[in-house]
């Protein structure tokens, strides 16, 4: 049986949300957003362990949530770093050497469909690396600093990338170690693997797998949990 671990990163400040409370701890349908996210992986029989990365000041309250909500697969809670990438790296360093596969997931993406998580992992088992994504719906322009359009990439080749992102653990660790050496900073995990010259596969997910980022995402999240992805729906 393959050892599957999950690193959930929740050490961001949530500055774009503009709330006093960090967005991962905002209450959605009676529970912190982060608890909804952790519960996705707690429920999966394929998952052996979860590492939670959070802010240094939030480690104790996260331990409290783990106890309160019975999140027994969370084996460690560690303090994150300055950038998302630093937080993921800290999480990866907590995994044991028998870990074969790892999923990296944002703590503020509580609505990933189980079938998509599994499809992503299965694709990674075939190819080494896979991420969830959706085709972009809008026309995307490359715009310079003066506001002038430089180009319009062909929309058929554009995908909005989500998490989880699934990798053979040894590959992702190598990618993170290489990025540390070269000082490369990426905005997702796949970028670090791409830097090694290794291709990453996209697995189509859905538009409900939002990253709760800005204030207008909250009513949308509330609608999703009550109409699509809440406990009553699953
Ligand atoms: N230093 C950081 C930065 C981000 N994250 C996590 O990475 C995920 C995606 O990041 P994002 O939505 O950008 O969160 P924030 O960095 O918190 O938001 P903002 O950029 O608005 O401050 C979140 O679960 C966030 O907590 C993290 O663990 N460590
Ligand atoms: C990893 C990610 O969620 C994929 O969409 C995203 O890149 C995180 O970016 P952010 O800058 O932390 O919002």
UniProtKB/TrEMBL annotation:
| Keyword vocabulary terms for this entry | Isoprene biosynthesis, Nucleotidyltransferase, Transferase
Chain positions of site Positions MEP for the nucleophilic attack? 155, 211
List the Pfam families: IspD
Record-annotated site: Transition state stabilizer = 16, 23
Q: What's its catalytic activity? A: 2-C-methyl-D-erythritol 4-phosphate + CTP + H(+) = 4-CDP-2-C-methyl-D-erythritol + diphosphate
Q: Tell me which EC number(s) this protein carries.
A: 2.7.7.60
Q: Which SUPFAM superfamilies match?
A: Nucleotide-diphospho-sugar transferases (SSF53448)
Q: In which pathway does it act?
A: Isoprenoid biosynthesis; isopentenyl diphosphate biosynthesis via DXP pathway; isopentenyl diphosphate from 1-deoxy-D-xylulose 5-phosphate: step 2/6
Kindly list the GO molecular function terms attached to this UniProt entry.
2-C-methyl-D-erythritol 4-phosphate cytidylyltransferase activity
**Gene3D superfamilies xref list:** Spore Coat Polysaccharide Biosynthesis Protein SpsA, Chain A (3.90.550.10)
Q: What does this protein do?
A: Catalyzes the formation of 4-diphosphocytidyl-2-C-methyl-D-erythritol from CTP and 2-C-methyl-D-erythritol 4-phosphate (MEP).
Q: Which HAMAP family match?
A: IspD
Give the family this protein belongs to, as stated in its UniProt record.
Answer: Belongs to the IspD/TarI cytidylyltransferase family. IspD subfamily.
NCBIfam families from the UniProt entry? ispD
Recorded protein name is: 2-C-methyl-D-erythritol 4-phosphate cytidylyltransferase
Q: Which organism is it from?
A: Paenibacillus baimaensis
């Amino acid at each position: 049986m393959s050892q599957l671990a999950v690193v959930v990163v929740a050490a961001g400040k949530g500055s774009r949300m503009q709330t006093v409370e960090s967005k991962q701890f905002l209450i959605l349908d009676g529970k912190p957003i982060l608890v909804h996210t952790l519960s996705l992986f707690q429920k999966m029989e394929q998952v052996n362990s979860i590492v939670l990365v959070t802010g240094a000041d939030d480690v104790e309250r996260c331990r409290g949530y783990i106890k309160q909500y019975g999140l027994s697969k969370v084996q460690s809670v560690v303090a994150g770093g300055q950038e998302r990438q630093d937080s993921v790296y800290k999480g990866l360093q907590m995994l044991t050497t028998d870990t074969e596969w790892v999923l990296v997931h944002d703590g503020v993406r509580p609505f990933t469909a189980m079938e998509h998580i599994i499809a992503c992992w299965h694709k990674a088992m075939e190819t080494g690396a896979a991420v969830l994504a959706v085709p972009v719906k809008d026309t995307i322009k490359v715009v310079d600093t003066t506001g002038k359009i430089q180009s319009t990439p062909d929309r058929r080749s554009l995908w909005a990338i989500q998490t989880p992102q699934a990798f053979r653990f040894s590959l992702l660790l190598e990618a993170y170690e290489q990025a540390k050496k070269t000082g490369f900073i990426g905005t997702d995990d796949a970028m670090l693997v791409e830097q090694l010259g290794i291709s990453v596969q996209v697995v189509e997910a859905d538009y409900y797998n939002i990253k709760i980022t800005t204030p207008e995402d909250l009513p949308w999240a509330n609608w999703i949990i009550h109409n699509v992805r809440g406990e009553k729906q699953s």
